[in-house]
Amino acid sequence: MSAVAELHQRWEMLPAREQPDWRDHPELSRIRAELRSREPLVTESEIAAARAGIAKVAAGEALLLQAGDCAESFAESGPEHTAAKVAALTGLSDLLSLSTGRPVMRFARMAGQYAKPRSSPTEMVGGVEMPTFRGHIVNAPEADPAARAADPERLLLAYAHSSRVLAAMPDGPWVSHEALLLDYEGPQVRPGATGDLLLASTHLPWIGERTRQADHAHVAMLAAVANPVACKVGPTASPESVVDLCARLDPDRRPGRLTLIARMGAGRVAEALPPIARAVRQAGHPVVWLSDPMHGNTVRAKSGEKTRHLDSMIAEAVLFRVSLERLGLHPGGLHLEVAAADVTECVGGNVPGEDALRRRYESLCDPRLNPSQARELITSVF
Ligand code: PEP
Ligand code: MN
């Protein structure tokens, strides 16, 4: 058995949360084999350069801005959409650079951000129970039980759309997504020229809050690849559990290898982050710390939509920055959900109240900042 096949087996034997229920689908092994034979979406030299750039952030010489949709849409992989998203990210990173006087590494939540973890496998819509939407890589968002059926052919569509997005950003920022679906990511793990295993689906994969169990498949898979990797850290993580994750994901303590993304909520971060950051430093891991001030601050509007308030997001990110600075650590930057268009999904800034949400609420999943709100956040925090 080749080294790659062995490693696949090593993590595929492990438990994994948030996977679609398509294990017994007759086409799954053919689809996986097809994915395995596809061209890498990103190159080894790009991955190495991304890692070297993140090492500069770890050293405190630069900042990092990771931003994009919560869930990308297959309908928005064309060159105009891609150009608009890249321009929005570039504008925000230039602003961050201007307000801090430091270089900013840009990572887009793009070209593969198609899989979503969900708090419940089913939901009731108009009195009908149906599977929840899990991202375009799994099912369709329409409120119809047939559209919501999980379809593994979508793995190949996700590859095709990612490839289309990348083709439209030749000089582009680096790409990143949550490495959630093992049936998409696993077949794209392959040996590079140096013999190291690489995840060829993206430059910077991350592990989400719901799949960061240290002895489960997602952590084992990203532990096996040489990409820079990231992991979300929520408010209930213990310092010991995060040090355990660091030991697995960054055993060699290499700057640029591991980014931790704190997403704790404005009310929790000042208490929860310092003991974790101290324990990680004590264990010798030169991680980059980013603030995701979105996912710990999601609330329901009175009308039922998920939303987030800009003042809570600013509060969390400021407390993140101050907490790390008090420890003498470098606040490495931000992880944001931002649209390129002037959407009205979060409240604050140019969306004065919940009544304004219905003007342009388009997100496939979580509520995104519009560019003006994102500018306000960045300049209020850094
Ligand atoms: C996300 O980034 O869209 C997400 C689901 O985040 P988390 O894993 O932090 O909940
Ligand atoms: Mn999200």
Question: What attributes characterize this protein structure?
Answer:
TIM Barrel; single chain; 11 helices; binds phosphoenolpyruvate; 36% helix; binds manganese (II) ion; 382 residues; alpha/beta; two-stranded antiparallel ribbon; eight-stranded parallel beta barrel
Characterise this structure.
- With 382 residues, the protein is an alpha/beta fold.
- It has a single domain (3-381), classed as Aldolase class I (TIM Barrel, Alpha-Beta Barrel).
- The chain has helices at residues 3-12, 28-37, 44-58, 79-100, 153-167, 182-185, 217-224, 239-249, 269-282, 310-326, 371-381, and strands at residues 63-68, 104-109, 122-125, 128-131, 174-178, 189-191, 197-199, 204-207, 229-233, 258-262, 288-291, 298-300, 306-308, 331-337.
- It has an eight-stranded parallel barrel, surrounded by five helices. Strands 3-4 form a two-stranded antiparallel sheet. A two-stranded antiparallel ribbon has the order 6-7.
- Strand 10, helix 9 (269-282) and strand 11 (288-291) form a beta-alpha-beta unit.
- Helix 4 packs parallel to helix 11 (371-381).
- The radius of gyration is 20 Å and the shape is globular.
- Manganese (II) ion (MN) binds next to loops.
